[in-house]
Structure formats: C-alpha cells, structure tokens
Amino acid sequence: MLARLIAAAVWTALTVTSASATLIISADIGGKMQDYTTRFRQVRDSGEPVVIAGKCVSACTMVLGLVPSDRICATQNAVLGFHAAWMFDNSGKRVVSASGTEDLMKTYPAPVRAWIERHGGLTPKMMYLRGRDLAAIVAPCHSSRVASVSRAKRFGGVHQVGDTNTPRASSDARR
User: What's the rounded Cα separation, in Å, for the pair 151 and 143?
Assistant: First the structure.
C-alpha cells in the first residue's frame, strides 16, 4: 500500500509541468510503455529539457523518441538499457511481445534503431548504450547546463504495477 501511495505522489509530481523545470532521469528501471508514452509526451509538450544522469533502462529509453533530441542531454554517468518488450501470458509467465517490441522500435529515432540493429536487435537480454556510443547519439550535457538547473524533477526509482497484459519494456515487482 505504501508503494502505491509513493507511486501516486511521484506520478502527481511528474505530471505537473513548467517550462522552467528540468527533468533529470536517473535510476529509472522502466515499466509500462503506455505510461512512459504519456509521461514523455507531457514532457515534450511542456518544453522541459531532459538530463539523463544515470540509469535509464527499458521503457525509460522511449524518451529518446518522444522528446525532441535538442532538449535531451546525457551526463557521463548515463547508461541506457534496451530489450524486447514483454507481457504476461494467461498463465502469468513473461513472454516477448512482438507487437510491443515493434512499437518500441518505431518510437526510437533512426540512430538508436541503427545502434540496436548493429547489436543484434531487441531480445529479452538487456543491451547497454553508454560512453562514446551514447555521446554519438545523445548530446553530452555541458556542466553549466546541469549546474544551472534551478528546479529539477527526478524521474526514476519508482515502478508502478497494474494491468499485466499491457506490453512492457521492463519487468515489474512480480519477479
């Protein structure tokens, strides 16, 4: 119950937007693709810049295709993790969702899709984009941009669990 209250508080904080805010992503393990689509469209529409400052895996990586690239930067600590989308079958077993994976790939910009393809495509196994490969796709943050953030919203660390038949790009608490 406490986890749901915390998740609700974080969701509320994330849906309040302001052009003066900066979204800082770190320790984000992903979740339902539909939830991240909604969140990142709100960020896109708000005009907020996004700083990827740590781990952004699974559905979190959808930020790359849903927020304009000129408003996203990555610190040297940023790590993006990609894998095939999945959902639960009727017996509760996790299975790859071909349509969810296709939708996920369509979300990504061409350079991300090309990097994924060069690394074997999306599979159930996580693949990581970091360092020089990441800097070739996502603009590195300048220290002044990160330091001048007057008000930042953190994104990550909370995972909401709900409908089990919605394609997800990451696992949930049922592990």
Answer: 16
Structure tokens given for 131: 């360092």
Asked if residue 105 lies in contact with residue 122, where contact means CB atoms within 8 angstroms, the answer is yes
pLDDT at 163: 40
* pTM of the predicted structure, to 2 decimals: 0.73
Q: What residues are paired with 57 via a beta bridge?
A: 81
| Dihedral sign, Cα of residue 113, residue 115, residue 120, residue 126 | negative
Question: Could you tell me how many residues make up the chain?
Answer: 175
Q: Are 136 and 94 in contact (CB under 8 A)?
A: no
| Alpha helices (runs of H) in 20-124, residue ranges in sequence order | 33-46, 63-66, 98-107, 110-118
Residue 76's nearest CA partner among 125, 142, 5, 157 is 142
SS3 call for 56: strand
Cα 110 to chain centroid distance, Å, stands at 17
Phi, psi for residue 166 in degrees, rounded to 5: -95, 130
Q: Quick one: pLDDT at residue 21? A: 84
How confident is the model over 9-18, as a mean pLDDT?
41
Rounded Cα–Cα distance for residues 175 and 171 (Å): 7
- Report the C-alpha gap between 48 and 20 in whole angstroms: 7
